[in-house]
Design goal:
Elements (H helix, E strand, L loop, with lengths): L3 H14 L27 E2 L11 H13 L5 H4 L5 H8 L29 E3 L7 H12 L5 H9 L2 H18 L12 H13 L1 H9 L4 H31 L8 H13 L5 E3 L6 E5 L2 E5 L3 E4 L9 E8 L8 H6 L13 H14 L10 E7 L2 E9 L3 H7 L7 E10 L3 H24 L1
Helix pairs in contact: 1-2, 1-6, 2-5, 7-10, 7-15, 8-10, 10-11
């Protein structure tokens, strides 16, 4: 959703045609609230704490939202990305009344590949490369319960002029002030980054922007002075650090931790509350007395959650795009390959879905699902996890009984490319806006 007008159309369509109901959220040690304000606790899910780990065309987007909303009365497998017959064949080969086969599935989801997904009746993506705003919009249609959609509409309409000016200010800072436009870190010179850092520190760009734009000067100064300049400078310094490691007298390979910090610092520019690195806790899921464990690289959290986690999105980071692991996996997946998004490798699909499953009880949206990000170097993919009603409860009991879940994937966006950052600005600010709504709702 590239504008607030688009949000109005999308949410209105959701109120009209969304027929889904909110599943209840389960937790082993305490009850937590969902957006529907109805929760149950369950003994099947456990969270273990000790272990740590060291678009700019309104008309076109609005029409896209209307189209997606008109189909929202269908079930997940019909509404989302399951039109491809090869996707259906993956699931129909299973006996849906039989228990989930767990014996050969490894405990740590970090060792999963997409070969385990049919066991959990998870459909990952499609052939099509969706826009990030489309993934975000369809996610709302599924994740926000019908009764709350009118509240979403009213919330997004409040302060519309202020929000418009905020979006324009962030666009200018991230596209015109930070004006890097390339495909790879190796294409950026250190002196260019030092100059950008000086521009941010001096702050003259704020005065120039105010003089150029017809804007609310106090609002723009407040936005820039409070968060934008500080967080943008942190992002620039992380990028500069990586460039120096790469191009120093003794060049070093960039680590996944460096790319993780780069993405996290970029996302924090937009006011998102992110827990990353060793601060991320272990999440476990028990299915029919067998435990599975996931530790995401980072999580985007409910901004004011106290005590219990309220996860908005899980984040998986790799330092580069992953190829298929070996010839055996390629051969085993040859029949299914058309059904899956091609820019996300087998291991990433399995690991990302494992993280969704283990963190689902702690989702800010209850058991209805959540968002996610797959980061490969500087390439960012937005995802959403959308299980059917009753999926999680059946999963914990070991019998899915025809319940399915769909992971929707966007195209890749490179944070070093201007055109791609333009879309990411919209997406992250929309996330921040939706998180504010959830905060008020709670």
């Amino acid at each position: 959703m590239a504008s607030l007008n688009n949000k109005k159309v999308g949410v209105a369509a959701c109120i009209k045609s969304d027929s889904t109901h909110c599943t209840k959220r389960s937790r082993s040690d305490s009850e937590t609230d969902t957006l529907s304000l109805s929760d149950d606790s369950t003994e099947n899910v456990k969270k273990q704490r000790p272990s740590k780990k060291g678009s700019d065309s309104d008309d076109s987007i609005a029409e896209e939202i209307r189209t997606s909303a008109s189909a929202s009365g269908e079930n997940v497998s019909e509404h989302a990305e399951s039109s491809d017959s090869s996707q259906i064949s993956v699931l129909t080969r299973m006996d849906t009344e039989s228990p989930i086969f767990l014996e050969t599935i490894k405990k740590n989801t970090s060792e999963w590949t997409d070969l385990v997904l049919p066991n959990f009746r998870i459909i990952f993506g499609s052939d099509k490369f969706a826009q990030a705003d489309d993934v975000f919009t369809k996610g709302i249609l599924h994740l926000i319960e019908k009764e709350a959609c009118s509240e979403v509409l009213n919330f997004f309409l409040k302060g519309r002029t202020e929000d418009k000016e905020k979006y324009e200010c962030f666009r200018h800072a991230v596209l015109n002030v930070f004006d890097i436009d390339c495909c790879h870190i190796d294409n950026i010179q250190e002196d260019v980054m030092l100059k950008l850092n000086q521009i941010i520190e001096e702050g003259h760009w704020i005065d120039n922007y105010i003089a150029m734009a017809n804007c609310n000067q106090p609002l723009v100064r407040r936005i820039c002075d409070r968060d934008l300049c500080t967080n943008l400078k942190t992002f620039i310094w992380q990028l500069l650090y990586m460039i120096r490691k790469r191009k120093g007298n003794k060049p070093k390979e960039l680590s996944e931790g460096m790319y993780q910090e780069l993405f996290v610092s970029f996302a924090r520019i937009f006011g998102l509350n992110i827990v990353s690195g060793s601060n991320v806790e272990k999440y476990s899921l028990t299915i029919d007395e067998k435990d599975f464990v996931a530790i995401p690289d980072a999580v985007i959290c409910h901004p004011t959650a106290i005590g219990d986690d309220k996860i908005f999105a899980v984040i998986e980071v790799k330092k580069c795009c992953q190829d298929e692991e070996n010839e055996q996996i390629r051969n085993l997946r040859s029949i299914q390959k058309r059904a899956f998004v091609q820019h996300v490798g087998s291991s990433l699909k399995g690991q990302h879905c494992g993280q969704f499953l283990c963190t689902l009880p702690f989702s800010a949206f209850g058991n209805r699902g959540m968002y996610g990000f797959i980061v490969q170097g500087t390439q960012v993919t937005l995802t959403s996890f959308k299980p059917e009603d009753g999926y999680y409860e059946n999963l914990c009991n070991g019998y899915l009984r025809k319940k399915e879940a769909v992971v929707t994937c966007s195209k890749e966006y490179n944070i070093l490319k201007k055109d791609d950052r333009k879309q990411l600005v919209e997406t992250f600010l929309d996330f921040e806006k939706l998180l504010k709504f959830i905060c008020i709702k709670k």
